[in-house]
Design goal:
The complex is a heterodimer. By secondary structure, chain A is α+β, with helices and mostly antiparallel strands. Chain A contains nine helices and nine strands. Chain A is elongated and about 100 Å long. By secondary structure, chain B is of the alpha/beta class. Chain B has a six-stranded mixed β-sheet with strand order 1-14-13-17-15-16. Chain B has a four-stranded antiparallel β-sheet with strand order 2-8-7-4, with no helix packed on it. The longest helix of chain B is centred in the C-terminal third of the chain and has 25 residues. The chains are: A alpha+beta, B alpha/beta. At the A-B interface, helix 5 of A face strand 16 and helix 14 of B.
């Protein structure tokens, strides 16, 4: 007999709770646009933040409420973006693809170390110990924090300890920009092909002792450049990309190859007069 | 009795690294030759950089003002030698950063007389006049942190200071500058204490000295006039007793709260060399232009304590004292809390208390880092009773926010005891230094964001 009492008690409790849940579901229902889920499914789920939103879901919400256009997502493929634009019936939005670019060319074959660093294999850690030991204070330390932080495998360290960005894989999420203790990375539209690959603020040939491809602030590029394309600021050329920058003239007379032309097919193109780097091995540690 | 005494006179945990002080603690302070070129960075203290007020080519006298303070947490810089300002340019600094600075070329045959300024009399000057005088003299904490002393001495409204503590502990191995200063500049120290007592309003002063410097303690105690509210206390030898918070616990059994300052327990702590400098400079209205530096370590030929003009390049210093040909590492400060330098072109600054040079023989390089075995040795030695083991594991997984919020990362003052005892050779202090810098960066970004709102 007692088993029936138990069954009845539990059964009625289940019934009461079920009714409460049903009522709550009806009363407290929050309407959510079903398109948000659909759009989120079409996004790459990288949650990288490159669009400026905290993740793919908030970006999807913004898309559906038409605060932003699908082109803002630099991670999706073109087809993916088109699909979202078609689904929402909005225009694609022309966002030029951006990539992370490194303003340093001082690999171990051209840059000198003043001291050898032993400790945590991390640029951020090394930079706290007296700057990291590299002769050029501004240069890349080469321990690969950027390679480790990149979620898209777009960064690989080359044989000379410099990070190489695969422009196809780079989504301009900005993680490498944030992690680099020397602030060498910046996000650039892919059309910016004229590039100053140096951040050394020193002037004169003393720079070359520390790094053979450093900018000596000779100013030839600024002189040769048409109009106000290049100005010298703090001993470094600064390219004004709002001018017509589709010219390779400024790089031609650069004696060290600190200002380069990033060609889609040829890769890094240096000027005719820039010195050739032949050394394959390390320059190592030495007094400068 | 012995046990009771032990508990009363020191702090919890800590380590006993080899002291190695006997090589230099018997050597008197000697004047160092003037370097032909002095390199003066404008960032020699914590706070905003000094602003240069001389121009290139200008001739300056020793003790002349070269750069003025920019704000309250900042100090001026005086010329350490008579000479010509050769260049104003970026100069390398101990942090590895390039900072603004100037190159000063010495007059070869100058008598290097020091300029005198407006004297500040301890009996007639007011509290604010003394604090201003300390700032004008360019005095910062000479123990190594280089925090502007006048800021430390200014007791905030609503708080009061009852004990002034003079820190003559010098727990860092190898270094003997404070030891020699206490033996040779005792009068200056006592004079400095008068200034400090007046500026802080403290009722009494305690000079804390570790037991390995008994001679200095006896010397100072004998010189204190009867009736002065100054006492000398000897504490057992233990690292890192020289840290403010540890010394306060040792001498007064007060505990500075987490994230707090000594003034929160009514104490102001000043390093003994800083005190001597105040007592030496203020009666003449001079600015600081030189400091005592211990140059020691297995790689140095002429070890000793030298009075070195600020701005003397490290390379010149090492040339003068002579170094072993197999030198491998050079530390500024002591081997525990000092920084390994990456560049010999940096110069002696106000915060440089010692230079320790090691050769290839002493340095074990490429030690394999093993995983944490949770032996708890680091927990046993951490003077702040943090959990370095847990913090180290979190740092490895980059859980920086958790470290700061749940495990009091920001209280760590990087004494290095945990790394010293770690059997797995985990570079714990470097992890913490890195984590702290990232947390600070994130907090600053957060604040900037809130500010923008």
């Amino acid at each position: 007999m007692s088993i029936f009492i138990a069954l009845a008690a539990l059964g009625s409790l289940t019934l009461i709770l079920a009714v409460m849940l049903i009522v709550a579901n009806k009363k407290l229902y929050v309407y959510e646009d079903p398109r948000i889920d659909a759009v989120e499914d079409m996004l790459p789920h990288a949650n990288c933040g490159a669009c400026g939103y905290p993740g793919c879901r908030p970006f999807a919400e913004a898309l559906v409420s038409s605060q932003v256009l699908p082109g803002k997502c630099t991670v999706s493929s073109d087809e993916g973006r088109m699909a979202i634009a078609d689904y929402l019936g909005v225009s694609l939005g022309a966002e030029e693809k951006q990539v992370a670019r490194l303003a340093c060319a001082g690999g171990t074959n051209v840059a000198l170390n003043r001291a050898s660093y032993k400790g945590l294999k991390s640029c951020q850690g090394a930079s706290l110990v007296s700057g990291g030991g590299k002769g050029c204070f501004w240069g890349c330390l080469g321990h690969g924090d950027c390679e480790a932080v990149c979620d898209f495998d777009a960064i690989t360290m080359n044989a000379h300890g410099l990070p190489i960005v695969d422009e196809k894989l780079c989504t301009a999420c900005g993680d490498c920009v944030e992690v680099c203790p020397k602030d060498l990375f910046s996000l650039q539209p892919i059309s910016h092909q004229l590039w100053v690959a140096c951040k050394n603020l020193e002037q004169g040939d003393g720079v070359l002792e520390d790094c053979q491809v450093g900018c000596t602030a000779c100013g030839k590029c600024a002189m040769d450049a048409p109009g106000n394309l290049i100005t010298m600021v703090n001993n470094l050329p600064v390219v004004n990309y709002s001018e017509n920058h589709k010219t390779q003239v400024p790089i031609q007379r650069c004696p060290t190859g600190a200002i380069v032309w990033l060609d889609e097919k040829l890769g890094i193109v240096k000027g005719k007069e820039s010195r050739k780097v032949i050394r394959k091995g390390e320059r190592g540690v030495g007094a400068s | 009795m012995g046990l009771l005494n032990f508990r009363k006179n020191t702090f919890k945990h800590g380590i006993h690294p080899p002291e190695r002080k006997d090589e230099t603690n018997g050597l008197p302070i000697r004047q160092f030759p003037f370097s032909p070129v002095i390199i003066l960075p404008m960032v020699q203290h914590i706070g905003s950089p000094s602003e240069i007020i001389v121009r290139e080519g200008q001739e300056v006298d020793r003790g002349q003002l070269l750069a003025k303070a920019t704000g309250y947490v900042s100090v001026p810089i005086h010329a350490p030698i008579s000479g010509t300002v050769r260049k104003i340019a970026n100069v390398p600094s101990i942090s590895g950063k390039m900072v603004q600075g100037l190159y000063l070329e010495a007059f070869p045959s100058s008598s290097q007389e020091v300029l005198e300024g407006k004297p500040i009399d301890v009996d007639t000057a007011t509290q604010d006049e003394i604090l201003q005088g300390i700032q004008d003299a360019g005095i910062v904490g000479l123990g190594g942190a280089a925090f502007p002393t006048h800021v430390k001495l200014k007791v905030p409204d609503g708080k009061h200071c009852d004990v002034l503590m003079i820190n003559g502990v010098e727990c860092e191995p190898y270094l003997t500058t404070d030891h020699r200063v206490m033996l040779e500049q005792a009068e200056d120290i006592l004079m400095g204490i008068k200034y400090l007592l007046k500026s802080t309003g403290a009722e009494r002063a305690i000079i804390g000295i570790e037991a390995n410097k008994q001679d200095a303690a006896d010397h100072l105690a004998a010189l204190i006039p009867k009736g002065d509210p100054v006492t000398v206390e000897v504490v057992p030898v233990k690292y890192p007793q020289g840290s403010e918070k540890m010394l306060i616990t040792s001498l007064l059994d007060r505990e500075v709260p987490s994230g707090g300052l000594p003034i929160d327990v009514n104490v102001v702590v000043v390093n003994v060399a800083t005190t001597a400098e105040i007592g030496r400079l203020l009666p003449h209205g001079r600015g600081i232009q030189e400091r005592v530096v211990t140059i020691t370590g297995p790689g140095v030929k002429k070890k000793g304590n030298y009075l070195i003009p600020i701005g003397t390049p490290l390379r010149y210093v090492l040339e003068q004292v002579g170094v072993d040909e197999h030198i491998s590492e050079v530390y500024m400060g002591g081997p525990m809390m000092g920084v390994a330098v990456s560049n010999l072109d940096i110069s002696i600054v106000k915060g440089t208390s010692g230079i320790v040079v090691f050769t290839e023989k002493e340095i074990k390089r490429d030690q394999k880092i093993y995983p944490c075995i949770k032996c708890g040795k680091c927990v046993d030695v951490c003077p702040l009773s943090l959990n370095p083991s847990k913090l180290g594991i979190l740092a490895k997984f980059e859980a920086y926010d958790k470290m700061a919020e749940d495990f009091n990362l920001m209280d760590c003052f990087e004494c290095g005891s945990c790394s010293y005892v770690c059997p797995s050779h985990i570079p714990l202090v470097q992890y913490f230094r890195l984590s702290k810098s990232i947390v600070r960066k994130r907090n600053a970004a957060k604040q900037a964001k809130e500010h923008a709102k």
